[in-house]
Write a structure and sequence with these properties.
Helix content is about 45%, strand content about 15%. It has ten helices and nine strands. The strands form two sheets. It has a five-stranded antiparallel β-sheet, with no helix packed on it. A hairpin with a 2-residue loop joins strand 2 and strand 3. The longest helix has about 35 residues. The two termini are about 40 Å apart.
Amino acid sequence: MDPITHLSAGAVIFQAVRDRLPKARFLLFFCLLLAILPDADILFFRSDPTFYLVHHRGFSHSLLFVALAAPVLAWGYRKMGNGTESWRLVTALAAGLLLTHIYQDLITSYGTQIFAPLSRARLGMDAVFIIDPVYTGLTLLCIATAAFWRRKRQLVALAAMLWIVAYPLFCAGLRVVAETRYRQELAQQGAPYDCLTVTTDALSPLFWKAILTNNGAYALESLDLRRTTIGEPAFDYQRPSQELLNRLVDADPFLETYFWFTAHPFYTEQLLENGGRELTFGDLRFQSPGPLMQSLFENGRTPFALTVRLNADGQVRQFIFHRSGKTFARSIME
């Protein structure tokens, strides 16, 4: 999730526990810091795209990190303060803040390595879009209410904590509804497909996106829970063959990392004057069939785009990786 959502969760937890720790110093700072702390991983590898893809939402977002870091952070906080707080209580608070951050990332489709370093599997609930105005907005409203309604601030904070946990579960249920309805529509149409994935889109939980696989192509369709009928899926996105993927991942370690990171890789192809080809890859996790996201990416480049240039013999000559306004290029052969 976005930083505002994480910080708002920290503020809610602060309101919920402040009466239990009336003499604690810098408690708000502690709660806000730990609510955003796992994302500090991005500060250490801004210039290394391989390290970013592998380790962002990696160990700092894992259960093992919580188990190791929470007692240390609690010890440091007690040293910084007056030392009168219960170490067990502060440790539980630290663990709760870190786990809330991990949960708020797990509910998205990006993928979170909660079992790192034991496993590199990127898990996601595909329940809440990376930015959800309803989810964050109501949390902020609860914070403002608790700040002004002091007599009931703990009750309001506890209700907000319930909202933080329950809303994604509600959205996950709606995703199942959207997927079930869509499968029924596809069955009635007799539409061919090998695999179907329903995941979040802008303005979820009202809108979802469906990724269908059929032979060597993908279809990307928008699902609107207000609509009872759908059109026939259009398989407009080309899937890379296993042969092409094997050739690319053998050419450079970064390309191997990139295709490990992608969940639904697709590409477009353009012929070059020298007889080579230019392949532009993306991940349908970050592609949207809805008008809102398409208007934000009018240049056609979605996040985590990769351009690979091949020579006339099909060997990788150069690749260019685009992320968050940054570009990383490497030439492999002349």
